[in-house]
Specification:
The protein is 11% helix and 66% strand. With 131 residues, the protein is mostly beta strands. Strand 5 (95-108) and strand 6 (114-117) form a beta hairpin. It is globular.
Length: 131
């Protein structure tokens, strides 16, 4: 079973794309992070079932990002990697700048939301749960 356990709104997001060795600002946005918990009951040694859990973080660019250039299928095909930098407000009120390297596109709607999987998201998701 998978369930959404936390949503974190980010501010002052900047989405970068990398083409070869060139890092270019692609859009300014207000992204959100979604943390999901995947759990599965597994019988161990034929006895009682135990819940095995895993966390993952997903990054969603929602609303209307302010693109710095025209984006179409031809442009997207040239991109080798995406990065995102955004500010997250911690529970103590302080804003922390976070950089998400090598985010993997899951779904891109040219006229809507973009969804990215965050690599090595289990460690990050645990950290974000404390924010």
């Amino acid at each position: 079973m998978e369930r959404l356990i936390k949503t974190i709104l980010c501010e002052r997001g900047e989405l970068y794309n990398i083409i070869g060795v060139q890092r270019l600002l692609l859009a300014r946005c207000e992204p959100k992070l979604e943390i999901y918990e995947h759990s599965q009951s597994i019988p161990i040694l034929g006895r009682k079932s135990y819940d095995v859990k895993r966390l993952r973080a997903v990054l969603v660019l929602c609303g209307e990002p302010e693109f710095t250039r025209a984006v179409d299928e031809e442009y997207l095909a040239k991109i080798t990697r995406f990065e995102l930098v955004a500010d997250i407000q911690r529970s103590d009120g302080v804003f922390e700048s976070m950089k998400f390297d090598n985010i993997l596109p899951v779904e891109i709607w040219l006229d809507g939301d973009w969804t990215f999987e965050i690599t090595d998201s289990s460690k990050l998701a645990r950290r974000l749960l404390d924010i």
